[in-house]
Amino acid sequence: MAMTVDLPAIERTDAITRRAPAGLARYVRPALGLLLPLAVALAWEMAVRFSLSSGRLVPPPTKVFATIDELARSGELGRHVAATLTRVAVGFGLGVVAGTLFGAISGYWALARRLIDPTIQALRAIPSIAWVPLFILWLGIFETSKIALIAVGVFFPVYLGVMGAILSVDRKIVEVGRIFRLSGPAMIRRILLPAVLPAYVVALRVGLGLGWMFVVAAEFMGASEGLGYLLIDGQQLGKPAQIVAAIVIFAVLGKATDWLLEIATAPWLRWQDAFGRHSGAP
Amino acid sequence: MLVLDRVGKVYPNGVHALERFSAEIRRAEIVAIIGGSGCGKSTLLRAIAGLDRATSGAVMLDGAAITAPHAKIGIIFQEPRLLPWLSVADNIGFGLSDLPAETRREKVARALARVGLMDKADAWPRELSGGQAQRVAIARALVPQPEVLLLDEPFSALDAFTRRDLQDHLLDLWTDTRPTLVLVTHDVDEAVVLADRVLVMRPRPGRLFEEIKVNLTRPRERNSPLFGSFKHHVLTALDRSLDRSVPDRDAKAGVGGSMWW
C-alpha cells in the first residue's frame, strides 16, 4: 500500500526537477546569443571613447542610437518605417496569393504542372533585380513598380514551397482519405491542407525574408521615403550613423515580422514532432 | 458474402501480380491469406478494398461489385497511418464526420475504452507507442462498423509480445460485431491463431495454392499439440508453394475442374 502511495509522489518531484532548469534556461539561453554582439559593440564604443579610432566611418553604438532617437523625435522615422512596411506588406501579400495559387495548381494537377512549371522555372532563373528597368518602363517610378518587384521576389519561394509540399504529401495518408471515401474538397480540407501546412509556413517565412531583401532593392531605384531611402541618403550626404541606424531597424523589423508569422501559425503546428521544439536541442 | 471471382492484376509494367484468384468468404468468417513475398497478397487485399482495380475478374460484396472504397469495407494497414495533426480521439472519429457531434463523441469514447486508451484521447499520435498506435488504427477502422475488415500484415512491425497481445485483442473486438476478417500475413502463428481458414498462395504470378480449414475452438491455446499440427500443416503447404516442381491447383482445375488433394 505504501508503495502505491509513494510512486506518484516520486514521479511528481521528478517532473518538477525536470521543469525547473527548463524555466530558468528559457531566459538564459537566448541571452547567450546576445553576448557576442554586445561585447563587440562595447569594445567599439570603448575604442572610440579612448580615441583609438575616430569613429567617423564606423559610428559607435551610442551615436547610432542617438541618430535613431533623433529620427524618431522628428517623426521622420515613423514615416520611413510606415512606407517600407506598407510596400513589404502589399508586395508580400500579392506574392503569397499568386505563389499559393499557382503552386497549388501545379502541385495538384499534373497537366497544369507540365504546362506552366517549365515557364515559371525559367522565369525563376532570371535574377529578380533584372526586372527593375522593365518594371519602371511599364509601371512608372512610383509605388507600383516597387511593389511588383517585391511580389516577384516573394512569389518564387512560395510557389516552389507549395508545389513541393503538395507533391510530397504521403500517398499512404492520402489512401486513408480514400478509404473513408472523402470527396475532392474534403480530401483537400482534411488531408492535403494540414499535411502541407508545415512546409507552407516555411515557404512563407522564406518569402517574407526575400520580401525584405527586395524592398531595399526597390527603394534603391529611386524613392523619396522608406528605410532604403535613408540608406541612400546617408551614403550621399556622408552620414554613416544614419546608414547603420537604417540597417539596425531593418534587422529589428525583419526579425519581428518573422516572429509574428511564427507566432500566428504556431497553433496549427502544435502536432509537429519537430527536433529542437522539445528537449531535442539543449 | 464476399466473393472473389477469378481476380487478376497485371501492373502497367507487365508484372502479373495476381492470376485468377477465386474464393468465397462467408459473413463473420476469419480468413488468413499467407504466402511468400511477391505472391500478390497485398495486391489482392487492395483490390478488395477498392484502392486498386483488378485488371480481370471481379470482387463482389453481397452481389455488388467493388470498384472503389466502400462504406462496408474497412482496412488496417501495416503501419497505423494515423493523421499526425489530429488527436487520438479525432483520428478514431475520422470516418464518422457525417454523424452529429454528440453521437460521434459517444462512439469515439466507447471505442477508446474498448481498446484501453481512454487516457490517450487528447494525445498526439506521435506520443503513442507502436502497439498503441496500431490499436488506434484498429479502433478507427472498426468504429464505422464495417461488414468486412481487411488487415494487411497489421502486426508485422511490432515486437512478439505486443503482437500476441494485439492478436488476442483483435479477436476480442471481433466478437462485438463479428465482421468478416480478411487478414494478409506472413506469420504462420498469426494465421493459425486467428483464422477459420488459411489460404496459402504461391508466387510469380500470385495464385491460390492450397486452402486449409482450422477447426479449432476459440480461444486457441498456442502451445497445444493440435495447434502445432495445424501450424505444421500450413508450414508444409507454404514450403510446397515455393517449390516450382509442384503443380498448382489452378493448372489442375483448368483441366479437371476438381480439387487435386
Number of DSSP helical runs of chain A? 10
Number of helices of chain B: 8
Q: Tell me, what's the shape of chain A?
A: globular
Low-confidence stretches of chain B: 250-261
Itemize the secondary structure elements and their pairings.
The complex is a heterodimer of chains A (282) and B (261).
Chain A: H1 2-49, H2 61-73, H3 76-108, H4 110-124, H5 132-139, H6 143-167, H7 171-179, H8 184-220, H9 227-236, H10 240-265
Chain B: E1 2-10, E2 16-25, E3 30-35, H1 41-49, E4 56-61, E5 64-65, E6 73-76, H2 88-92, H3 101-114, H4 130-142, E7 148-152, H5 160-177, E8 180-185, H6 188-194, E9 197-202, E10 207-213, H7 225-241, H8 249-255
Helix pairs in contact in B: 3-4, 6-7
Overall description:
- The complex is a heterodimer of chains A (282) and B (261).
- Chain A has 282 residues and is mostly helical.
- Chain A has one domain: MetI-like (MetI-like fold).
- Chain A contains 10 helices and no strands.
- The N terminus and C terminus of chain A are likely disordered.
- In chain B, helix 3 packs across helix 4 and helix 6 crosses helix 7.
- With 261 residues, chain B is of the alpha/beta class.
- In chain B, strands 6-7-8-3-9-10 form a 6-stranded mixed beta sheet, with helices on both faces. A 4-stranded antiparallel beta sheet of chain B has the order 2-1-4-5, with helices on one face.
- Chain B has one domain: Rossmann fold.
- The C terminus of chain B is likely disordered.
- Chain B is built from 8 helices and 10 strands.
- Chain B is globular, with a radius of gyration of 19 Å.
- The longest helix of chain B has 18 residues.
- The relative contact order of chain B is 0.17.
- The interface between A and B is medium-sized, with 18 and 21 residues.
